[in-house]
Amino acid sequence: MNILFSLHHPAQVHQFKYIIKTLINEGNEVSVLTTNKDGEVALLDKFGISYTQLCQSTGKTPYEKLFYFFLITLKTFVFCLQHKTDVFVSRASPMLAINAFIFRKPHIVYEDTEIARLNLKICKALSTTIITPTGFRLDLGKKQVKLPTYKELSYLHSNYFKPDLSVFEEINLQQDSRFVVLRFIAWNASHDFGSKGLTYENKVKMVHELAKYTKVFVSSEAELPEDIRQYQLKTSVEKIHSVLYYAQLLLGESGTMSTESALLGTPAVCVSSSALRIGVFEELEQNGLIYIIPDSKEALDKTVELLKMTDLKKTTRESAKELIKKKVDLNSYIINLIRNGGKIS
Question: CA nearest 219: which of 188, 248, 252?
């Protein structure tokens, strides 16, 4: 079977890497299309996954994104003509959905972001199966399959992930040292339009305030302000989840990294108004794993409060383990769906 994956974000590389390797080991022909807007190529290289890079970017402005939409759709079409794809797999990618529809082939989608409404609308019309977590708030009709899972468990479940203690050497700390991670994003994804992130002043204030209490490391999609560049996290790109595992807490704008942190048993304070519109966060918040606080001052105050709680990390880790026990193996579900030609058995 010839299977095509479309991966346009580092989280998507993490999500599908074990599925891709399993399918290759079974003797399937697996192709990966990608861009390199957020470091996807570096991760694919690290994991030894072959790929075809279509573009360096997916655009930042609405006009640029429209241009790249057509360019990636066309390049995907040409690729599929040459490789005779049998099954298409991706997040809610309209470019892949269009091509799957043109070639009359199944398109398997996993999506957990309700605010990606345009992408979901196209996939609802053209894709074959759309897998969502049970907390997903949109009804996508008969093509939707709701599963009790999170995409992050595709690579962070204990069956797949083992924390790497060598990260302490990379961040120049003794093992068991306390530290926090701050995560800033670029706010240029298509579902980010209408939303805005922390200001320059917010970022600087957060870093300097938290540095009074503990060691601080900053991970950022965009270049850091000069005032806080010395705090930049410099670990190997594939070791970010080990950093989150050993951290005391995550404070940041990224919904994906907040979820990753929470499922690893590290409490997360997410400074994002858009997160309030996404169903998976509601369950995580109810279980005391994430705190959604759009106001930067309130988020910083909450972070300081949490850092002073001596048993917080232990409690969060226990809560995460209990929640994960109730979830299904998303990797196995998608692999079986692919084996069945995209049809739900």
Answer: 252
Which are the contacts of 291, defined by CB distance < 8 A and separation ≥ 6? 267, 268, 269, 270, 285, 299, 302, 306
188-194 long-range contacts, Cβ below 8 Å, gap at least 24? 188/60, 189/9, 190/58, 190/65, 190/116, 190/118, 190/119, 191/113, 191/115, 191/116, 191/117, 191/119, 191/274, 192/274, 193/62
Give CA–CA dist 235/124, Å, rounded: 39
> In 10 A of CB 229, how many CB atoms?
11
Kindly report the backbone phi and psi dihedral angles of residue 130, in degrees, each rounded to the nearest multiple of 5, phi listed first: -120, 110
Residues of the chain with CATH 3.40.50.2000: 2-149+328-339, 167-324
Domain 2-149+328-339 superfamily per CATH:
Glycogen Phosphorylase B; (3.40.50.2000)
Residue type, 164: D
**Contacting residues for 142 by C-beta, under 8 A, at least 6 apart:** none
- Work out whether the CA dihedral 326, 330, 331, 336 comes out positive or negative: positive
Q: What is the pLDDT of residues 298-336, one digit of tens each?
A: 999 999 999 999 899 999 999 999 999 999 999 999 999
Q: Which residues pair with 145 in a beta bridge?
A: 131
Look up the pTM and report it.
0.91
Q: Hey, which residues does 179 pair with through a beta bridge?
A: 215
Query: Could you tell me if residue 164 is left (phi over 0), alpha (psi between -120 and 50 degrees) or otherwise beta?
Result: beta
Residue listed under structure tokens 């996807």? 40
Instruction: From 160, 182, 340, 342, select the one nearest 257 (Cα to Cα).
Output: 182
pLDDT band at 237 (very low <50, low <70, confident <90, very high): confident
